[in-house]
Amino acid sequence: MALLKAARAADVPTLDVVAPGLVVEAGTATASASAAVAMVKSGAAAAGGGRFSVIGHRGKGMNALASADPRMQEVRENTIRSFNDAARFPVDYVEFDVQVTKDGCPIIFHDNIIFTQQDGKISQKRVTDINLEDFLQYGPQNEQGKVGKPLLRRLKDGRMVNWNVQSEDALCTLQEAFEKVSPRLGFNVELKFDDSLEYQEEELTRILQAILKVISEHAKDRPILFSSFQPDAAQLMRQLQGTYPVYFLTNGGTELYTDVRRNSLEEAVKLCLASGMQGIVSEARGIFRHPGAVPKIKEANLSLLTYGTLNNVPEAVYMQHLMGVNGVIVDLVPEITDAVSELIALPEPDVEVDNLSNQAARGDTTPNFSQREISFLLRLIPELVQ
């Protein structure tokens, strides 16, 4: 087995987005580890065919402002600069969050609420309640001499901090991303909705059609896949178009919601099969806690991607490859792409990025492991899950 470098599980950056309730009892972790290793050893979870994809999270990585790791504040997330910085490494896609402004313009921004400060007073607005012109006045400005409104961010623990990073760039629209980002990169367009709001079909349709209009006019031959945590939005996007694959985003049971469709990998599979979606994007911990779900996802001819802080650990990424995961969404783009190039024998990329909707259930063989390597993986899994 190739040398594992870049990071150990204990060195994962402490982020401000770690989901609650993820601690697993030792017995549960050991059982999950045994199941996962058994899958690898028997070849039951043979890796999906095609290219194992590395996807840059919000570009070159999200901004974790509470982290002591300077890499997590290197470049402003969800900007043209972050996307093009990611393109300097062997990533296949960049993932970003799309919302639609009050006047109908798709913009790229993760948080539901945007914060600023003036004369010592903090003010906030819902991103979808402001017009494009107002949205673009926040943060750094590309126009020389122009000063934007200072950006603040509310952390998971409620603290408000200045949103400062080492390499700045202005906020951008979806159209700008198509026009200014390296054409070799695919786009994983996350359809972003607020969990605290209820959406009627008419409103969802208006939002999704605004996004599809920009894509139809500017996508050209760029590979695109849609994803969303909002089950109705994901289903509706599948109904509105058939050109691009749609993936359902799920926490994989690591958090619970009133909508049961969001509460497990099993429910995610049911939703995808019922609506014709092509894949699932799961929190990586959900895969490690329930490794038996992976072959079921493959049997359903669905592609499988993961996200989460574990994807900043090369060992965890490698294990997912062996389990049959098709790709990972990562923050530490340089480190993980370097590790993947060493750990996983990748085929030469085609001129066009291999479409992730076609990767599910194409049978390759799982590499053979020595007993020593199997023992290493068995010890590793409980550490990762906990």
From TrEMBL:
Where does the UniProt annotation place the signal sequence? Answer: none
State the Gene3D superfamilies in the record: Phosphatidylinositol (PI) phosphodiesterase (3.20.20.190)
Q: Does the keyword Hydrolase apply?
A: yes
Mention one GO molecular function. Answer: glycerophosphodiester phosphodiesterase activity
The coiled-coil regions, if any, are none
The source's superkingdom equals Eukaryota
What are the recorded Gene Ontology BP terms? glycerol metabolic process; glycerophospholipid catabolic process
Q: What is catalysed by this protein?
A: a sn-glycero-3-phosphodiester + H2O = an alcohol + sn-glycerol 3-phosphate + H(+)
EC class of the enzyme, as a word: hydrolase
Annotated GP-PDE domain ranges read 52-340
- The catalytic activity of this protein is classed by the Enzyme Commission as 3.1.4.46
Q: Which family, according to the similarity comment?
A: Belongs to the glycerophosphoryl diester phosphodiesterase family.
In its UniProt entry, what is this protein called?
A: glycerophosphodiester phosphodiesterase
What organism does this protein naturally occur in? Answer: Miscanthus lutarioriparius
